[in-house]
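Thread: adenosine-5'-diphosphate complex, take 2
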Amino acid sequence: MKVVLDNVTKTFRSRDKQSKEAVVAVDHFSLEFPDGKLVSLLGPSGCGKSTALYLLCGLYKPTEGRVFFGDEDVTDIPPESRGVGLVFQNYALYPHMTARQNIMFPLQNLKKENKLSAEEMNRRVTEAARLVQTEEYLERKPSQMSGGQQQRVAIARALVKMPKVLLLDEPLSNLDARLRLQTREEIRRIQKETHITTIFVTHDQDEAMSISDLIVVMKNGKIQQTGEPQKVYDDPCNLFVSKFLGVPPINIFNGSIKEEKVWIGEDCVLDCPDLPEQEVYVGIRPEGFVLDQNGCLGCQMKAVEVMGRDLSVIAHNDAAETGQFRSIIPSDTAIDKENESIRFSIKPSKIYVFSKETEERIL
Ligand code: ADP
Ligand code: MG
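Output below.
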């Protein structure tokens, strides 16, 4: 089922009692989450991801705007009647119950005409446990399970009512690095198997990029850009989005446009016919540099880090935002480490130009 936030705004009274100003947590947010897809809401802490999720599940009512599930306006429908499964960051299983009892709990609470037979409940629990591969520890209590196992049980508990929409709020942040990788692949697998429309909240760009059909990059309660992960990475609409995606991050230089060319310091790095003269930010992805003695960009080599498959050359350039920038080049590149003064050419698809005034992308 598709889910729609239509021009939704949510404001809160400030937590700071002295302050009279309202906090705008979600700001005129309009988006259709397509049926059967996994969409990630991605952005830094405090940008409104959780609030957007709680508006979807009905824990919050919008200050303005409407929420639709399919064609039905659910804005005034309470959470328990919306058919959503919700998983939080801290899995919050009931400690005195086994995994099986935890998963079954939402079914036991069904009222009247929705009541299920014991047989049907057991069938559903077995099916949910199979999906998240927790069959072996169904009789264990949370204290006898690892964090990853507990989180799977929490996901099974959200799936057992066969929700139309699955909402996950930073479900992996309490897991260690390896489990995080494993569990995110698991979530992707389950989502593909069930085709449940899934909305996944995270501040981790790597996590969002790796499992999503679509990512929604947010800042200050507003959508910055929506698209397929690779597309947004390759084609960021503004400086914020370009900086938020990619590890190591994009390198930003202070540059300028003069005489229809883009300059970094004294070096001309790109032609830009028809653009007016102005100050700009030039962003270059680390993988966009090619060591080349005739290259357009000069710099001083500071360090070479071995990364296994690749080398990372750290170099100084006065125009770089941090004084230094980082390039990633193949590990078989010959580097004369005595020669401090080096030059790079730049792959045209890896260079972006942003207006200094608006931070919007102009090239
Ligand atoms: P995220 O999940 O992206 O970290 P949140 O949606 O939790 O962000 O919060 C967005 C903004 O709204 C933050 O500035 C936060 O402090 C504020 N906020 C969230 N919930 C409340 C609340 N119940 N009362 C007041 N301010 C809130
Ligand atoms: Mg949050």
